[in-house]
Specification:
The complex is a heterodimer of chains A (251) and B (936).
Chain A lengths: L3 E6 L6 H10 L3 E6 H5 L10 E4 L13 H21 L3 E4 L1 H8 L10 E4 L7 E9 L14 E7 L3 E4 L2 H6 L3 E6 L21 E5 L5 E4 L24 H13 L1
Parallel strand pairs in A: 1-2, 1-3, 3-4, 4-11
Antiparallel strand pairs in A: 5-8, 6-7, 6-9, 9-10, 10-11
Chain B lengths: L10 E12 L6 H7 L4 E14 L3 H12 L6 E4 L8 E7 L6 H12 L4 E14 L3 H12 L5 E5 L26 H10 L6 H14 L5 H10 L2 H4 L6 E4 L2 E4 L1 H13 L4 E3 L6 E4 L4 E9 L1 H6 L1 H17 L4 E11 L16 H19 L3 E8 L8 E11 L12 E6 L9 H4 L4 E2 L2 H4 L9 H16 L5 E4 L4 H9 L5 E4 L12 H6 L5 E6 L3 H9 L4 E7 L4 E6 L2 E7 H6 L5 E3 L18 H9 L8 H4 L10 E3 L2 E2 L5 E2 L3 E3 L9 E7 L9 H18 L8 E7 L6 H21 L3 E7 L3 E3 L5 E3 L3 E10 L16 E5 L10 H6 L14 H13 L5 E4 L4 H13 L2 E4 L5 H5 L6 E5 L4 H7 L3 E8 L3 E4 L2 E4 H8 L5
Classes of the chains: A alpha/beta (251), B alpha+beta (936).
Chain lengths: 251, 936
């Protein structure tokens, strides 16, 4: 039986279909479910194998990107989320979903304070980036053999935490922005598009089961999506989604 | 915002959030202050939040921590305790302006169990500067806020919430019976109806025959229904020209071309909100482009924002799911001296940055990729900027029902109504002047894209479940226009009490005419399942009445009758407008022969010209990747910074074998010289762009968007007639039908002294085609050294009206690019070579001719080029139709030459770093510096 992926949708979520496509291509069965249907009990988190929070502009980014989505999750489904985390189900948050996981306190986890705030240039950025998978803790990224290439599309993606060194020491920095050659971005724009200290693009929780990242790997799961198609075909992100699913299967 | 002021301890609590932000980028407040010659050292921006309610300090702490302040890097304090050194100015929204953040704070506070009654965000500016009172006023008015939607105060600004106790006015009668022309003109003027004198007479006669005075609702609905914006009086008018009468530009030229071409791929042209075209056996695509010029001139962010929102709803209005948006923007020069701007006219840089932010905000937030557009600059757009927004949608073949039935419920989806944009349809049909910013304040709106995203989800779900018999969007004219059109034959009976209001105090006619954004109207035999879907997606929905089949438009407000009018008079009672067009003088002086042009200098100036230079920095603020279907992007190549021609998107949910290709043509320079030639020229440009992005030129469809001056001026109208004739002839020659279009007229700014500044006559053409072999679409930018370069089409182009003359700063005479029906053969030949996989990369010759095209193309691939050609200006910089540069591998050269006979092998790709064209040689570094770094 295919693993079932729950993709909750808030008012203003918009990349849920993109994310569902990526998980489906990876061999899962993904379903977009409005928060209202989760709240009414029509659907329940407990009947899914993976939780994936999609990108978009939940509530129009009012009060800060992901804040209200995170508040909804924490105040309506807090117990279910903790239960799911303790059950060890893989969780994934991309862009606005990452912001919501941080706002809900699931990332970086263990009470560490962090936020995804305005890009250094104070503007929305949409461009393709290269990502180095650098954590052996995250079940999503630890087996990736090659850098990923995919677009970013966000205005609030600068990851700041009260103790980045501790996250690094604990191997929780899962993805970093690098040049096309794999060299560190070293905060250089636009290789690092938002000015995140340490070129951090994605982090995992201490268990390695929860991953959040700003870029959109779900928008590079088909070779035809690659803007360098015809010049090279590197960096397809499908292995990331397969890794999340296979962690579940092997668990 | 829901409010109740019953509690006694209610107070306004103002919190300030730090640290402040200092922005120094282009068009930041600091930058703009310098533009207005204000000696400002630093402008720091703090967030302010006003929370109204009976709240303890502990409550405020929870609100701050959970809802306002970011952990790690932000702090907050009571606004009164924040005593910064420097000048303090506060700005905030006017009451009634869309305030998503304030509303969300109230909702979230209620989730947390806190008794917040109202909330709004504002800005505290802390300024380090030495300014006199007049300069402070300039700073506040022109730099820190836009008074159309915001307020300001020196020091603390008290929040303004809509009055919760405002009393709803009753419906009034408007006297017209027995009035003479002068008295009717006064009614027309004082109510800002924007009607023609002949129309006022017809309205008077109608109500004399009915035997009563019209209500304010009836007169406003007539003005809206008969406005230029809704009724297209000019395009449907009878035009008397020196060569005879034209009975309707639309019928005579645009629709006639579509009828003559009689294309089998056109499913619906001109009749609905958008054109509908066959995509494949299973799907159709819908396409539409709109303008939002007048609002964008006054409130650039809101105007452009709602422009995108409006055209997206046009696509939803034919039951299609939006899958891409486009924007074509026309601004004045960046370096206009602010002292030369008339009062109330925003600086082009301010308009540009606001418009771009507004376009990006809406598309990004609804999750529809912005994949194509253009930005052009010309002095003629300084007082009349233009904003064109387009949208592409996908629907299962034949799934747009269009016939409401008697007894169907009228279901309104979306947000509540306010005084938003009341009079927008009539406003956009009038010229602008110095007073406009004051009186038209309520005609400009701010969008709420998140609601529109919800509308998309609900409409698509309702369509797939076949829950409605007809659908339309609520745009200009509000319910009056949307319900009015849907009920044009059947009639309807509506109760305005059932329409949700944002705040009390609206007159009934204002509820009916309100242009509150993000609403759709559906005719549903059973509304219950639609209401359930709306609840599931958190979208508002109300049943406000029903279609009757009795042929009368009846609108009530509870017991009170607001409108009771015969549908036939409402929709067919308007007299045809009769207009005069003068003869056009198209004579041109011969080209100057004594002109000395330095080719390198000219090329670098052209690459830095504001209509040619890179807009990658703009494109990067638009999401062009969401939905995952974009395959040819607006900027691409080795480093992602080379300009593509057309763009292509695979509609999500289709089988992935075909893409929709979009090409855009627009030219600011030719419309003043020869509107008919301009029409041919921009259609050809749009076709070229589409061909390079893989479109099959045998199956193209066209959209027309005219932005013109005052059509009651016979010379202006003559130009419009000529442009329409050019559109017809080119469309027929190219076998490409028009499927939809929109005209924006009265783009004229009238100065205080009565002098009129008309816009540069502008025609935007959008071409839509299909790419049927995705593997052979040419790459953006050259690919491999050693490959052959071919020039398709004539060696030289025309210099009259060229961009070369624009950078030389004078019209140096000479013919403009001629209509060239033979170009279609070249498009077909190149497309055949592309389909056969013979083309590695290609770039069309457009603004700046061969030299600019070669430079952009080489830059995109980071390789050199060597082309043998003459080095005269007409060869290097001339502009014309059906011309391309093409890269072909040596192995494919023979096959290419036999496929594209109208081409010449003119050179090859080199390792670089130079681009060589005859005697002209420039390096990639020089190109990059001019093209990317030439932004100032």
């Amino acid at each position: 039986m295919k693993p079932r992926v729950l993709i909750p949708v808030a008012l203003g979520t918009n990349r849920d279909a993109d994310l569902a496509l990526a998980f489906n291509l990876a061999g899962a069965e993904a379903e977009s479910v409005p928060l209202t249907a989760l709240r009414s009990g029509e659907r329940a988190l407990s009947s899914y194998d993976v939780l994936a929070l999609p990108g978009g502009f939940s509530y129009g980014d009012a009060l800060g990107a992901g804040r209200l989505f995170g508040l909804d999750l924490a105040s309506w489904f807090g117990d279910q989320l903790l239960e799911a985390r303790d059950r060890g189900i893989p969780m994934f948050g991309v862009c606005n979903g990452f912001q919501a996981l941080v706002r809900a306190g699931l990332l970086p986890g263990d009470g560490a304070a962090a936020v995804l705030t305005q890009n250094e240039r104070h503007q929305f950025e949409c461009r393709w980036v290269t990502l180095d998978a650098c954590s052996s803790r995250s079940i999503w990224t630890r087996d990736l053999a090659e850098p990923l290439r995919c677009p970013v599309a966000h205005g609030e993606g600068r990851f700041i935490s009260d103790d980045l060194a501790a996250l690094e020491a604990n191997d929780q920095v899962a993805l970093r922005y690098v040049t096309a050659n794999g060299d560190p971005a070293d905060l250089n724009y636009p290789t690092n598009p938002n000015g995140s200290p340490g070129d951090v693009a994605g982090v995992c929780d201490p268990t390695g089961m929860i991953l959040g990242l700003m870029p959109h790997p779900e928008n590079h799961v088909l070779d035809r999506q690659n803007p360098l198609r015809g010049r090279d075909n590197l960096g397809n992100c499908l292995p990331l989604f397969k890794a999340g699913i296979s962690a579940l299967v092997s668990a | 915002m829901t409010q109740s002021l019953s509690r006694t301890q209610t107070a306004d609590h103002a919190l300030v959030v730090g640290p402040g932000h200092v922005s120094e980028g282009p068009d930041s407040p600091g930058d703009r202050a310098r533009l207005f010659s204000l000696d400002v050292k630093k402008i720091e921006q703090y967030r302010l939040v006003h929370v109204l309610g009976d709240l303890s300090d502990a409550d405020l702490q929870v609100i701050a921590d959970r809802l306002v302040v970011d952990p790690v890097h932000q702090w907050w304090q009571h606004a009164g305790d924040h005593q910064p050194a420097g000048l303090v100015i506060e700005t905030g929204l006017r009451p009634g302006v869309t305030d998503r953040e304030g509303a969300e704070l109230v909702r979230a506070a209620h989730e947390l169990g806190l008794p917040v009654e109202a909330a709004t965000f504002a800005t505290r500016w802390v300024i380090e500067a030495d300014l006199d009172d007049a300069e402070v006023e300039v700073l506040a008015r022109r730099v820190l806020h836009n008074e159309v939607v915001e307020r300001w105060a020196l020091g603390a600004l008290s929040p303004a919430f809509a009055d919760p106790h405002a009393v709803e006015p009753f419906t009034q009668l408007v006297s017209v019976r027995g009035f003479d022309a002068a008295a009717l003109a006064e009614v027309n003027r004082s109510r800002r109806l924007g009607l023609d004198p002949e129309e006022m007479v017809v309205i008077r006669d109608h109500f004399e025959s009915v035997g009563r005075e019209p209500t304010d609702g009836e007169i406003e609905m007539l003005a809206q229904t008969w406005s230029e914006h809704c009724a297209h009086k000019t395009f449907g008018g009878l035009i008397q020209t020196p060569d005879g009468e034209i009975d309707g530009l639309l019928k005579t030229f645009l629709r006639a071309a579509t009828d003559t071409v009689n294309a089998p791929w056109v499913k619906s042209a001109f009749v609905d909100n958008a054109g509908i075209i066959r995509f494949d056996d299973d799907f159709d695509v819908a396409i539409k482009a709109e303008t939002h010029n007048h609002p964008s001139a006054l409130e650039p962010f809101g105007g452009a924002n709602t422009g995108v929102g409006g055209v997206v709803r046009d696509i939803l209005g034919v039951s299609a799911k939006p899958i891409a948006v486009t924007d074509i923007l026309c601004f004045g020069p960046d370096d206009v001296d602010p002292a030369d701007l008339p009062d109330g006219v925003l600086h082009p840089r301010q308009i540009r940055s606001g418009v771009i932010a507004g376009v990006g905000d809406y598309g990004n937030k609804i999750g529809v990729p912005n994949i194509a557009g253009a930005i052009i600059h010309d002095p003629a757009y300084t007082t009349t900027p233009l904003v064109f927004a387009g949208c592409l949608g996908l629907l299962p073949a034949g799934s747009n029902p269009t016939s409401s039935q008697p007894g169907d419920s009228i279901v309104v989806l979306g947000g509540a109504v306010g005084r938003d944009g009341v009079g927008g349809a009539t406003f956009s049909s009038q010229t602008m002047g110095v007073e406009t910013a004051d009186v038209a304040g309520s005609s400009v709106q701010i969008g709420d894209p998140i609601v529109e995203k919800g509308l998309i989800d609900v409409v698509v779900a309702a369509r797939d479940a076949k829950l409605y018999n007809a659908i339309t969007d609520c745009g200009a004219g509000g319910l009056s226009s949307s319900v009015g059109e849907m009920a044009a034959v059947l009639g309807a009976d509506v109760d305005l009490k059932l329409v949700e209001r944002k705040y009390p105090g609206l007159a009934p006619w204002e509820v009916w005419l309100s242009e509150a954004q993000e609403r759709m109207v559906l005719a549903a035999p059973d509304p219950a399942p639609i209401l359930a879907l709306a609840a599931r997606w958190s979208v508002g929905a109300q049943v406000i009445g029903r279609f009757t089949g009795e042929g009368r438009m009846i609108v009530r407000n509870g017991e009170e009758v607001v409108i009771d009018i015969d549908c036939e008079f409402l929709h067919d009672g308007r007299p045809q407008r009769v207009m005069q067009a003068a003869a056009l003088d198209l004579s041109r002086p011969a080209r100057r022969t004594d002109l000395v042009v330095d080719p390198v200098d000219a090329l670098l100036q052209l690459l830095a010209h504001p209509s040619i230079r890179s807009n990658e920095d703009v494109i990067r603020t638009y999401d062009h990747e969401v939905l995952g279907g974009t395959i040819v992007r607006p900027y691409a190549g080795v480093e992602g910074d080379g300009p593509a021609d057309g763009t292509a998107v695979i509609p999500p949910g289709t089988n992935g074998e075909r893409a929709v290709v979009l090409g855009i043509g627009v030219n600011a320079l030719l419309g003043r010289l020869d509107p008919e030639a301009m029409a041919w020229h921009v259609i050809d440009e749009a076709v070229r762009n589409a061909v390079v992005a893989g479109a099959d030129p045998h199956e193209l469809s066209l959209l027309d968007n005219f932005a013109w001056g005052n059509p009651t001026d016979p010379d202006t109208l003559a130009g419009l007639v000529a442009a329409c004739r050019g559109c017809h002839d080119a469309a027929v020659a190219f076998g490409a039908p028009f499927v939809s279009g929109k005209d924006s007229l009265y783009n004229v700014y009238v100065h205080e002294d009565g002098v009129a500044d008309p816009v540069a006559p502008t025609l935007v053409i959008t071409v839509m085609g299909l790419a049927k072999n995705l593997d052979t679409i040419p790459l953006t930018g050259v690919v491999s050294p050693g490959n052959a370069v071919y020039l398709v089409g004539p060696e030289a182009g025309a210099l009259g009206g060229s961009h070369l003359d624009a950078v030389l700063g004078a019209d140096n005479g000479g013919a403009v690019p001629a209509a060239d029906p033979s170009a279609i053969e070249r498009h077909h030949q190149l497309a055949a070579a592309i389909a056969a996989g013979l083309v590695r990369s290609a770039h069309d010759l457009s603004e700046g001719g061969l030299a600019v095209a070669a430079a952009e193309w080489a830059f995109a691939g980071r390789l050199g080029l060597a082309i043998s050609c003459d080095s005269d200006p007409a060869t290097l910089f001339g502009e014309g139709s059906g011309r391309y540069l093409v890269e072909v591998t040596p192995d494919d050269a023979a096959a290419f030459e036999s496929t594209v006979s109208m081409s010449r092998r003119c050179g090859s790709i080199t390792e670089g770093p130079d681009v060589v064209l005859g005697d002209l040689r420039v390096s990639l570094d020089q190109i990059r510096h001019a093209y990317v770094g030439g932004a100032q």
